[in-house]
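Researcher: Here's the sequence for the chain we discussed earlier.
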Amino acid sequence: MQAVKEKLHDMSEMRKAKAQAKAEEKAEKDIAKARMDVAHEVRLAKEAEAEMELHVAKAGEKVEKEAAKHAPMQPNASGTNMADHGAMSTGNRSLDAPAGAPPTTNTAEMNTTQAPPVKKFL
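Model: Thanks. This is the structure I predict for it:
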């Protein structure tokens, strides 16, 4: 009878040890999965950051390209570039006038014939 009790006790202890080992293994797997998920998110964030830097660089290149198109490259009478001195005229009076100056109207440039009004449809 004692041998049977010991055998049952040993079986019970073995079941508890197996359950504990299984629980530890599951916890380790969960930790490993969490690390993998974090690594994946970090990789995605780095890729997105690199892509954003590329877009910013391309936008900067486009701005420089457009600025180069609109800046006069012909030297003035003194032999210097007008863009270097900030004396560039845009042809737009509202942009060329000094800040705070009232708008001016040159009657010699005004067209005496006016175009008919255009209806705007929304």
